[in-house]
Amino acid sequence: MRTLKACLFDLDGVIVDTARYHFLAWKQLAEQLGIDFTEEHNELLKGVSRMRSLDIILEIGGKTLSEEEKTALANKKNEVYLEYILKMDESEILPGVKSFITELKNNHIRVALGSASKNARLILKRLNIENLFDAVIDGNKVSEAKPDPEVFLNGAAELQVEPEACVVFEDAVAGIEAAQNAGMFCVGIGDITILKKANLVIPGFADFNLEKLQACMQEDSYLHVK
């Protein structure tokens, strides 16, 4: 049976839905390159780094660019994305997330963010929830993208908690694999058919609490909540 000491949260699609802003920014860039970029294509970018996302878009369009050109395009995409997130506020926090994290804090469970986003701190500030996190591991602190476990192992280390006592909340397949590669219990947020490798899958935090999480962890098996 696992002992819960810390929870690590992905950002996009778990705490806030910035995925649509990423999609709009990537779509604008793709159109400038003459590439038809759809919402289905956008699913391939979940949980991966900015440069890898650009590579995927270029692969979709069958285009090859120099490293210098790719860096310039990635920076341009980020400028467009920043225009969107600078307009964000607390109303964009997904239902139940803040109350769940507050419940964790009230029960002395440590909380960290584990995200590939280099804008994670800015988003947390815009949402006014930066103070809820004991550690923030973002794209500026890691060199390996998910499914490599680096982001979550670094989070556990910064929290001074052993990996097996951590729970990860993720909405992407790559993130779930990263959590499992780190030896952590993983809760998938979203579609059970896509996130079936997670230990537990929930649609969101609206009807979820610490008691339910601990009950599922005691089973220490693959459980799913629809």
TrEMBL record:
Active site residues per record: 10, 12
Record-linked Pfam families: Hydrolase (PF00702)
Catalytic activity line of the entry: beta-D-glucose 1-phosphate = beta-D-glucose 6-phosphate
CDD domains: HAD_BPGM
Keyword Coiled coil: no
Sites annotated Important for catalytic activity and assists the phosphoryl transfer reaction to Asp8 by balancing charge and orienting the reacting groups: 115, 146
Cofactor binding note: Binds 2 magnesium ions per subunit.
Stored SUPFAM superfamilies: HAD-like (SSF56784)
Cofactor(s) recorded in Swiss-Prot or TrEMBL: Mg(2+)
GO BP field: carbohydrate metabolic process
Residues binding substrate: 10-12, 26, 45-50, 53, 77, 115-119, 146
UniProt name for this protein: Beta-phosphoglucomutase
Organism: Gaoshiqia sediminis
